[in-house]
Amino acid sequence: MKDIDRWAVFQAVNDVKVALKQGWAVPSSVNITPETLLDSGLVERLAKAIAPVAEYIHIEITEETLLNDKELVAQSLSELRKTGAKIYIDDFGSGFSSLSYLTYFDIDAIKIDRSFVLALETVKGKKVFSGLLNLANDLELATVVEGVETQDQINCITPQSDTSIQGWFYSRSLPLAQLRKYIVETNLLSLKPEDSASNNEGDSDDYSDHGVDELTKTDLAEAR
């Protein structure tokens, strides 16, 4: 799993660099497994790679990850967060939830699991969901609501100050080139002339054209 994590991080960094060059960069989330966070050497390499584009990188971990060596996990998260990257707890509330996690670890946001969205059809479900939003707001954590697919679900969500909505209501997962098109059209962006006219539609495998640093190129080659 560590090789996959490494590949995913370096690929995300590469894709962000491409998007920045073309003028449509958006934050990119990468899931990291416990095995990676327990490898301080690998974490150091990932942090070094992330640093140049850290403001666009969100590191996602599961609640289960936090059950491992607490001190080492906390150290690894701190190392990644010092670059400027954000730390998100994915699928919050679906597994080994503990409010102590939110105080012990350096966390920037929680992603509310889709099961709570599905429960919005009931009065109790709405109360639990509202409680999660209020908790995050009180702790000054950003919130991402996962798995939103319908207008009715949108109508049930009362966003707090820093709430984002993720799900098929807006779009399914897209390849990089289609994502570029979606973001540009949705936000009415004007791409840089030399990039919009280019035949290179964000082909993230063409590392030489994307200005990827040597460390990134080496690690991407190793992880493939």
User: Structural class given helices, strands, pairing?
Assistant: alpha/beta
The spatial strand order of the largest sheet comes to 1-2-3-4-5-6
Give the SSE order as H and E letters: HEHHEHEHEHHEHEHHH
Low-confidence stretches: 194-224
The helix content is 40-55%
Distance between the termini: 13 Å
Q: Compute the number of strand runs.
A: 6
Biggest β-sheet, characterized?
A: 6 strands, parallel
Q: How many helices? A: 11
Radius of gyration: 18 Å
Strand portion: 5-15%
**Which of globular, elongated, flat, extended, rod-shaped describes the shape?**
globular
Average pLDDT reading: 83
Structure description:
It is a single chain. It is built from 11 helices and 6 strands. The chain is of the alpha/beta class and 224 residues long. A 6-stranded parallel beta sheet has the order 1-2-3-4-5-6. Helix 5 links the parallel strand 3 (86-92) and strand 4 (109-112). The two termini are 13 Å apart. Residues 194-224 have low confidence and may be disordered.
Pick out its properties:
224 residues; 6-stranded parallel β-sheet; globular; alpha/beta
What's the structural blueprint in terms of helices and strands?
Layout: H1 2-22, E1 28-31, H2 34-37, H3 40-50, E2 57-62, H4 70-81, E3 86-92, H5 101-104, E4 109-112, H6 114-118, H7 123-138, E5 142-145, H8 151-156, E6 163-165, H9 176-187, H10 193-196, H11 214-223
Parallel strand pairs: 1-2, 2-3, 3-4, 4-5, 5-6
Helix pairs in contact: 1-3, 1-11, 3-4
Structure described in brief:
With 224 residues, the chain is of the alpha/beta class.
